[in-house]
Amino acid sequence: MSMRGFIWAGQGADCLMLLHSDFPLDSPVRMSAGVVITLLLGFVVEALTCFRRRLVGKFGIRRGPSLPRTWAAISIGMYALQTALAYVLMLIAMTYQSELFIAVIAGLALGHSCFNLRAPVPESADPCCQSMNQLDHLGKPSIQSDGRVAPYLPPASSMVQPLLAGGLVSFTESSQLVSYRLRVTGMVCESCEDTVKRALAAVDGVQSVRVDLPKEESEVGCVPTVGAQVLIEALRKAGHDAFLK
User: Fold this and answer.
1) Residue 69 confidence class, pLDDT cut points 50, 70, 90
2) What was the pLDDT predicted at 12?
3) Residue 24: helix, strand or coil by DSSP?
4) Whole-angstrom Cα distance, residue 137 to residue 233?
5) Residues 42, 116 contacting (CB under 8 angstroms)
6) Is this structure's pTM higher than 0.90?
7) CA–CA dist 120, 138 (Å, integer)
8) b/e code 179-213 from CB counts within 10 Å (16+ = b)
9) Are 17 and 25 a contacting pair, CB within 8 Å?
10) How many CB atoms lie within 10 A of CB 66?
11) How far is CA 92 from its chain centroid?
C-alpha cells in the first residue's frame, strides 16, 4: 500500500505484489497480467450476482422459499465465493496502484453491462431497497385504508372521456372477484412493502392489495381474468420474487 496516494507503475520504490509474494508486479508483463486478472475478478463478481438471482427466481416461484438441497448448497457456495472475491478486489484497490484500481472498476462495470444492466436499481447504497422510480411508468394507484385500489387513470382528453363515461372501461363493486395469496421474497423494509403494493396495484384488474411485511405475504383481490402468473411477473419486474401459496 502506498502512503503517498495513488501511483502509476514505475513511480514507487517498493516492489508491488498482487496478493501474494510469489506474484510480484516487477515488470510490464507481470503488471499487464495483474491488470487482466483484476479485471476478470470484477467481471466474475457481477456474473455471480446475476447467476444467484436467476437461481432464486427459477426455484422461488415453483418450490417456495426453500431451494432443493443441492441448489441451496450451490447458492451458498456462490455467495461465499462472491463475498471472498469482493474482499479480494477491495484489497487490490487498497494497493493504491492506479492501473489495478482502474481494472477493478472496469471489471465491475463490464460485468454489470453484460449481466445486470436491466436489474432493478437501488435507490441508495443499501441493496435491499429497489428504486421506486422503476414503477413510475405504471402511474401511482391510490391504495385506500381498507386495501381497495382506486386505479390510476391519466387525465382523459375530450375524445377519451366519453368512452370512460360510457362504461367501456369500468371496475364495478358487483363484479365477482378472485383472491390470491402470494409469498413475496425480499421485503425487508417499508420501502419494499410500498414497492410491492404499487407493483400489484398497477396490474389492470386488481381491486385490492394487502401486504403483510413481517410474514412476507400479499393478498390480492382481482377480476377473474387476472391470473396469478400475471401478478408474479409484475412483482418480478419490481425486483421481488413471488410464488402462489
Assistant:
1) confident
2) 63
3) strand
4) 16
5) no
6) no
7) 15
8) ebebbbbbbeeebbbbbbbbbbbbbebbbbbbbeb
9) yes
10) 10
11) 26
